[in-house]
Amino acid sequence: MKMLKRIMLKTTAPRRGFTLIEMVIVLGIIALLMLIVIPNLNKQRENASKHQREALQEVVYNQAEMYQNDAADHPKDPAASLDNLKTYHYLTPAQYDQAKRDGVELQRPVPNNPDSKTE
Q: Residues of 45-70 as b/e, b for ≥16 C-beta within 10 angstroms?
């Protein structure tokens, strides 16, 4: 029995690496996980971008109101514009660039009054 064991140990090479089928299975699992994760990441990226635009819009609204309240200090052009908000340091250059790129408006939208009846 010892002799047979010794012969088997000498003749069988140690197993190294993966078989082809094991590699295919692992790659298939990774591909399935990627198919699940990537669309969700894109959706989250879109949501984050939307929220960032909304936050910037709110900042621009507030800064435009502050500019209009302080317009006595700037009698040349009391109307708020993105350029004026940047010139008088109400917006940072990064905020200004993003607001220009996103087409941010300076006026708050007037909420619809459900009580008023338009005919």
A: eeeeeeeebeebbebbbebbeebeee
